[in-house]
Specification:
Elements lengths: L6 E5 L3 E8 L2 E9 L3 H14 L5 E8 L5 E5 L9 H10 L5 E8 L6 H19 L2 E5 L1 E8 L4 H10 L3 E7 L3 E8 L3 H11 L2 E6 L2
Antiparallel strand pairs: 1-7, 2-3, 3-6, 4-5, 4-6, 8-10, 8-11, 9-10
Protein backbone atom coordinates (compact mmCIF):
# COMPACT_ATOMS: atom_id res chain seq x y z
CA UNK A 1 0.00 0.00 0.00
CA UNK A 2 1.36 3.41 -0.97
CA UNK A 3 1.87 5.82 1.90
CA UNK A 4 -0.15 9.02 1.76
CA UNK A 5 1.82 12.16 1.15
CA UNK A 6 2.70 13.83 4.46
CA UNK A 7 4.44 16.95 3.19
CA UNK A 8 3.22 20.22 1.68
CA UNK A 9 4.77 23.27 0.05
CA UNK A 10 4.31 26.86 1.14
CA UNK A 11 6.25 30.09 1.43
CA UNK A 12 7.89 31.02 4.70
CA UNK A 13 8.65 34.71 4.17
CA UNK A 14 6.45 37.41 2.61
CA UNK A 15 7.76 38.83 -0.66
CA UNK A 16 6.62 41.70 -2.81
CA UNK A 17 7.07 44.71 -5.08
CA UNK A 18 7.45 42.44 -8.12
CA UNK A 19 6.32 44.46 -11.13
CA UNK A 20 4.90 43.77 -14.59
CA UNK A 21 3.90 46.50 -17.06
CA UNK A 22 1.64 46.45 -20.10
CA UNK A 23 0.37 49.45 -22.14
CA UNK A 24 1.00 51.87 -19.28
CA UNK A 25 -0.74 49.76 -16.62
CA UNK A 26 1.48 48.67 -13.77
CA UNK A 27 0.88 45.42 -11.86
CA UNK A 28 2.63 44.88 -8.52
CA UNK A 29 2.60 41.45 -6.86
CA UNK A 30 2.81 40.44 -3.21
CA UNK A 31 2.74 37.02 -1.52
CA UNK A 32 2.17 36.34 2.18
CA UNK A 33 2.22 33.16 4.29
CA UNK A 34 -1.15 32.87 6.08
CA UNK A 35 -2.68 30.53 8.67
CA UNK A 36 -6.27 31.87 8.72
CA UNK A 37 -8.73 34.04 6.78
CA UNK A 38 -8.43 36.99 9.18
CA UNK A 39 -4.86 37.56 8.03
CA UNK A 40 -6.12 38.01 4.45
CA UNK A 41 -8.13 41.09 5.40
CA UNK A 42 -5.23 42.55 7.38
CA UNK A 43 -2.75 42.20 4.51
CA UNK A 44 -5.14 43.60 1.90
CA UNK A 45 -6.01 46.60 4.08
CA UNK A 46 -2.27 47.24 4.49
CA UNK A 47 -1.73 47.17 0.73
CA UNK A 48 -4.68 49.50 0.13
CA UNK A 49 -3.04 52.04 2.43
CA UNK A 50 0.35 51.59 0.78
CA UNK A 51 -1.09 51.79 -2.75
CA UNK A 52 -4.03 54.14 -2.08
CA UNK A 53 -3.86 55.56 -5.64
CA UNK A 54 -4.18 52.14 -7.32
CA UNK A 55 -7.33 51.04 -9.17
CA UNK A 56 -7.58 47.35 -8.23
CA UNK A 57 -6.31 45.02 -5.48
CA UNK A 58 -7.02 41.55 -6.87
CA UNK A 59 -6.13 38.41 -4.96
CA UNK A 60 -6.32 34.67 -4.45
CA UNK A 61 -5.62 32.60 -1.35
CA UNK A 62 -5.53 28.97 -0.35
CA UNK A 63 -5.58 27.47 3.13
CA UNK A 64 -5.35 23.91 4.36
CA UNK A 65 -3.35 20.81 3.63
CA UNK A 66 -5.69 17.83 3.47
CA UNK A 67 -8.92 19.84 3.44
CA UNK A 68 -8.30 22.83 1.19
CA UNK A 69 -10.22 26.13 1.12
CA UNK A 70 -9.59 28.91 -1.36
CA UNK A 71 -11.02 32.18 -2.64
CA UNK A 72 -10.43 34.41 -5.64
CA UNK A 73 -11.38 38.07 -6.03
CA UNK A 74 -11.36 40.15 -9.24
CA UNK A 75 -11.96 43.41 -7.33
CA UNK A 76 -13.81 45.15 -10.15
CA UNK A 77 -11.93 43.64 -13.07
CA UNK A 78 -14.03 41.59 -15.57
CA UNK A 79 -15.03 38.18 -14.18
CA UNK A 80 -12.24 35.59 -14.04
CA UNK A 81 -9.57 37.89 -15.48
CA UNK A 82 -7.63 38.49 -12.24
CA UNK A 83 -8.32 36.27 -9.22
CA UNK A 84 -8.50 33.03 -11.20
CA UNK A 85 -5.21 33.56 -13.12
CA UNK A 86 -3.52 34.41 -9.80
CA UNK A 87 -4.97 31.27 -8.22
CA UNK A 88 -3.75 29.26 -11.20
CA UNK A 89 -0.18 30.06 -10.15
CA UNK A 90 -0.87 28.84 -6.59
CA UNK A 91 -2.03 25.54 -8.14
CA UNK A 92 0.85 25.40 -10.65
CA UNK A 93 3.38 25.74 -7.82
CA UNK A 94 1.45 23.28 -5.59
CA UNK A 95 1.57 25.62 -2.57
CA UNK A 96 -0.90 26.28 0.22
CA UNK A 97 -1.38 28.59 3.23
CA UNK A 98 -0.62 31.55 0.98
CA UNK A 99 -2.21 34.82 -0.15
CA UNK A 100 -1.20 36.48 -3.42
CA UNK A 101 -2.31 40.06 -4.10
CA UNK A 102 -1.72 41.89 -7.38
CA UNK A 103 -2.18 45.67 -7.24
CA UNK A 104 -3.03 47.42 -10.53
CA UNK A 105 -2.40 51.02 -11.47
CA UNK A 106 -4.45 51.73 -14.61
CA UNK A 107 -2.41 53.23 -17.43
CA UNK A 108 -5.25 54.65 -19.51
CA UNK A 109 -5.41 51.90 -22.14
CA UNK A 110 -7.75 48.92 -21.74
CA UNK A 111 -5.96 45.58 -22.04
CA UNK A 112 -8.94 43.41 -22.93
CA UNK A 113 -9.79 40.08 -21.34
CA UNK A 114 -6.75 38.25 -22.75
CA UNK A 115 -4.40 41.06 -21.76
CA UNK A 116 -5.72 41.16 -18.22
CA UNK A 117 -5.48 37.39 -17.76
CA UNK A 118 -1.89 37.47 -19.02
CA UNK A 119 -0.93 40.42 -16.82
CA UNK A 120 -2.29 38.95 -13.57
CA UNK A 121 -0.96 35.47 -14.36
CA UNK A 122 2.50 36.79 -15.30
CA UNK A 123 2.77 39.01 -12.21
CA UNK A 124 1.89 36.09 -9.91
CA UNK A 125 4.29 33.81 -11.80
CA UNK A 126 7.21 36.27 -11.57
CA UNK A 127 6.43 36.79 -7.88
CA UNK A 128 6.59 33.08 -7.06
CA UNK A 129 9.81 32.61 -9.07
CA UNK A 130 11.41 35.15 -6.74
CA UNK A 131 9.83 33.75 -3.56
CA UNK A 132 11.37 31.01 -1.45
CA UNK A 133 9.07 27.97 -1.57
CA UNK A 134 9.71 25.48 1.22
CA UNK A 135 8.51 21.94 1.90
CA UNK A 136 7.10 21.19 5.34
CA UNK A 137 5.90 18.01 6.99
CA UNK A 138 2.32 17.37 8.06
CA UNK A 139 2.71 16.68 11.77
CA UNK A 140 0.69 14.90 14.46
CA UNK A 141 1.01 16.24 18.01
CA UNK A 142 1.28 14.21 21.21
CA UNK A 143 1.54 14.99 24.89
CA UNK A 144 3.86 12.58 26.69
CA UNK A 145 3.90 12.51 30.51
CA UNK A 146 6.52 10.39 32.28
CA UNK A 147 8.78 10.19 35.32
CA UNK A 148 12.39 11.44 35.34
CA UNK A 149 13.73 7.90 35.66
CA UNK A 150 12.28 7.07 32.22
CA UNK A 151 13.86 10.06 30.45
CA UNK A 152 16.42 7.96 28.55
CA UNK A 153 13.74 5.65 27.14
CA UNK A 154 11.63 8.61 26.00
CA UNK A 155 14.60 10.44 24.46
CA UNK A 156 15.78 7.33 22.60
CA UNK A 157 12.48 7.15 20.68
CA UNK A 158 12.63 10.89 20.01
CA UNK A 159 16.16 10.66 18.55
CA UNK A 160 15.55 7.50 16.52
CA UNK A 161 12.44 8.98 14.88
CA UNK A 162 13.52 12.60 14.41
CA UNK A 163 10.68 13.75 16.65
CA UNK A 164 10.46 17.48 17.42
CA UNK A 165 10.02 18.59 21.04
CA UNK A 166 7.81 21.71 20.97
CA UNK A 167 7.42 22.25 24.71
CA UNK A 168 8.80 20.61 27.82
CA UNK A 169 7.80 21.07 31.45
CA UNK A 170 9.91 19.59 34.22
CA UNK A 171 7.95 19.60 37.48
CA UNK A 172 6.86 16.57 39.53
CA UNK A 173 6.81 14.65 36.26
CA UNK A 174 8.15 15.44 32.79
CA UNK A 175 5.56 16.73 30.33
CA UNK A 176 6.56 16.93 26.64
CA UNK A 177 4.59 18.26 23.68
CA UNK A 178 6.03 16.58 20.58
CA UNK A 179 5.42 16.78 16.82
CA UNK A 180 5.75 13.59 14.75
CA UNK A 181 5.66 13.38 10.96
CA UNK A 182 2.20 12.03 10.08
CA UNK A 183 3.25 8.83 8.32
CA UNK A 184 5.44 7.88 11.28
CA UNK A 185 2.95 8.88 14.00
CA UNK A 186 1.33 5.42 14.49
CA UNK A 187 4.77 3.83 14.84
CA UNK A 188 5.97 6.38 17.42
CA UNK A 189 2.71 6.13 19.38
CA UNK A 190 3.04 2.31 19.41
CA UNK A 191 6.65 2.50 20.67
CA UNK A 192 5.63 4.75 23.55
CA UNK A 193 2.60 2.63 24.47
CA UNK A 194 4.83 -0.45 24.59
CA UNK A 195 6.98 1.20 27.28
CA UNK A 196 3.99 1.00 29.70
CA UNK A 197 5.63 3.57 31.96
CA UNK A 198 4.13 6.77 30.60
CA UNK A 199 0.96 8.48 29.42
CA UNK A 200 0.62 9.53 25.79
CA UNK A 201 -2.31 11.26 24.09
CA UNK A 202 -2.91 12.98 20.77
CA UNK A 203 -3.35 16.74 20.85
CA UNK A 204 -5.31 18.61 18.20
CA UNK A 205 -3.30 21.51 16.70
Amino acid sequence: MTEKKDTYKTIEIAHGDVQFKDKGSKFIGYVFPISNENEVKTYIEGLKKKHHAARHWCYAWQLGIEEVRYRVNDDGEPNNTAGQPIYGQIIANDITNVLIVVVRYFGGTKLGVGGLINAYKTTAKLLLVESKIVEKTIDVFFQVIFEYKDMNKVMRIIKENNVKILEQKMELNCDFLIAVRKNNAPNVEKQYLELRCLEIKRILP
